[in-house]
Amino acid sequence: MTSNLEAQLLALRQSGEKAIAAADTLEHLEELRVNYLGKKGELGALLRSMGQMSAEERPKIGAIANTVKESLQTSLDQQRAALESAQIQLQLEAETLDVTMPGIYSPQGRIHPLNGIIDRTLDIFVGMGYTVAQGPEMETDYYNFEALNTPPDHPARDMQDTFYLPDGNLLRTHTSSVQIRYMEREEPPIRVVAPGRVYRRDNVDATHSAVFHQIELLAIDEGLTFTDLKGTIKVFLQAIFGDLPIRFRASYFPFTEPSAEVDLQWNGRWLEVMGCGMVDPNVLKSVGYDPEIYTGFAAGFGVERFAMVLHQIDDIRRLYASDLRFLQQF
């Protein structure tokens, strides 16, 4: 029986090494490992018959079995290494980059003229110590009007044709509402700049849009005067447009007193570019500030207006048309 089992073990090694050498995938190789060396594999089946041998025969057959197992395991390891190496080589060949091939054209993105104005403005005011603040585009009547010294019966409401919503809220007509929300949360001194979209029921034409962008600034502190306001606006406008003549004209806004319009002399003619004024004491009272202690100034402008002046754009609708022929000029 010993001679017969020994012959079976040697035949198993020969057939196993031949099968392993012919394996062409890692999956097939794993199947062979389980078939030959697994718990229920062929080698295990032969070794289970050793229980019928005498004590003198078992060491000899055991030594042969270990040799067969080691030989098969070595063949498995070598074939696995060869298959993995071949697999890596195929992957490298498939991923090889041919540097002589022409590249794929990918056009470079450009900053939209509106975003360019907003970015430049925020950089200037942040450099002057201002904080950027934002608020909701859907507002309550209180934040959009009442807290800004514009009660329900105030005639100034007619200055802004408002989009009212079915629930009684509205789409904000200016970013001044952001200033109220900010003042409610913070104590003076404050310096804040608020960019964002605003909405008014304007007829769309070359100079008007129902949706446009505003940037407003607000400063509250002890002892601020109209001179501080003029100096701030002058520094800002000269940073955007260069060293050009600037003038202030008396105007009216319900939330500032006194109020003014700011004109810039551009290409030989005066252009209205901003509105501004000292914060009305009633606005300070609405957020809990003592107007006997604090004063402040505010100013705002339309981003589209600045873009049209700087880039000599003749129709505001071009800014929203997503026409690449137009946008590629910037």
Q: What do these coordinates show?
A:
The chain has 330 residues and is α+β, with helices and mostly antiparallel strands. It has 2 domains: 2-94; 113-327, 2-Layer Sandwich (BirA Bifunctional Protein, domain 2). Helices cover 43% and strands 20% of the residues. The protein has helices spanning 2-22, 26-37, 42-48, 58-94, 113-127, 141-144, 176-185, 226-241, 281-286, 303-311, 324-327, and strands at residues 131-132, 138-139, 170-171, 190-199, 211-221, 246-253, 256-266, 269-279, 295-302. The strands form 2 sheets. Strands 1-4-5-9-8-7-6 form a 7-stranded mixed beta sheet, sandwiched between helices. Strand 6 and strand 7 (256-266) form a beta hairpin. Helix 1 (2-22) runs parallel beside helix 4 and helix 2 runs antiparallel to helix 4 (58-94). The mean pLDDT is 88.
Which terms summarize this structure?
single chain, two-stranded antiparallel ribbon, alpha+beta, 2 domains, BirA Bifunctional Protein, domain 2, elongated, 330 residues, 7-stranded mixed sheet
Summed up, what is this model?
With about 325 residues, the chain is of the alpha+beta class. Helices cover about 45% and strands about 20% of the residues. The strands form 2 sheets. The protein has a 7-stranded mixed beta sheet, with helices on both faces. It has a two-stranded antiparallel sheet with strand order 2-3.
